[in-house]
Specification:
Length: 269
């Protein structure tokens, strides 16, 4: 039996175990996906990664608060290095653990699933934290013209400086920049467990595609108001799904049963 898992603190709320185990069942793979909760320190994370490799664990996802620290304890690929965070570790018996970031690819695949063209599109990423970094790099690598907006403008400036071709602004600039925008992604936590939106409703328009990385609630105030304005909407569960799909495919070398994973994920939301 192969064992995969999730490193984070806390991890009791995670939806990754049912999503991945649905994939194992669908493809008759003898595997389990379990959660690990080390102390929230870099030293504990390093010991956990070393222990997972010693125990023969095949792969781990990494979540809050460990994504940035994990970069130090694995050999990251170029994308994870540019983003500055690792959310997927692949353990090999023949070498050091390899680190990847599937959040960027998850965002891109979620938009592709909804027939959103990114090459040459104008895209705004709201939020310059970990999710915002991954999404901004993912969209830019697909050929989108990215603008990062953040409440603290200096953080948007810092991110835009390392994302190819990106520009930056404050959240208060959204009414001015949204009219000419094709794609808007909310990568802030605004709207999580509260009925508020980071975007003024009257700035939204029918030519937009709006994706919210928040998935609890599934239909955020932002998505409700975007739909009312005639915009296409993509809920946060799609990004969560496709980052997991990407990790599964990297670990197993097999095409993921996306429908089964999506069904298992949404049944828990």
């Amino acid at each position: 039996m192969q064992v995969f898992g999730l490193l984070g603190n806390p991890v009791g709320h995670s939806l990754s175990p049912p999503m991945h185990e649905a994939a194992y069942d669908a493809l008759d793979i003898d595997a389990r996906y379990v959660t690990f909760e080390p102390d929230a320190t870099p030293d504990a994370l390093e010991r956990a990664i070393d222990g997972a490799q010693a125990l023969g664990i095949a792969g781990c996802n990494v979540t809050i608060p460990f994504k940035q620290d994990a970069l130090t304890f694995v050999e990251p690929d170029s994308l994870a290095t540019r983003i500055g965070a690792v959310n997927t570790i692949d353990f090999s018996p023949d070498g050091p653990p390899a680190g990847y970031n599937t959040d960027a690819i998850g965002a891109v695949r979620a938009l592709r699933e909804h027939d959103v063209a990114l090459e040459g599109a104008s895209a705004i990423v709201a939020g310059a934290g970990g999710a915002g970094r991954a999404i901004a790099f993912g969209l830019a690598d697909e050929g989108a013209d990215v603008t990062v907006v953040n409440r603290t403008v200096s953080r948007a400036d810092e991110l835009a400086a390392v994302v190819p071709g990106a520009t930056a602004g404050g959240l208060d600039s959204l009414p001015d920049v949204l009219p000419g925008t094709d794609v808007l992604v909310n990568a802030t936590s605004v709207g999580m467990d509260e009925d508020v939106s980071p975007v003024p409703a009257d700035a939204l328009h029918g030519q937009l595609t709006v994706m919210d990385a928040v998935y609890h609630p599934l239909e955020t105030r932002l998505l409700q108001e975007a739909a009312d304005a005639g915009a296409a909407t993509v809920d946060g569960a799609w990004m969560l799904l496709y980052q997991g799909v990407e990790a599964f495919e990297r670990w197993t070398g097999r095409e993921a049963p996306v429908d089964r994973m999506n069904e298992a994920l949404r049944s828990r939301l």
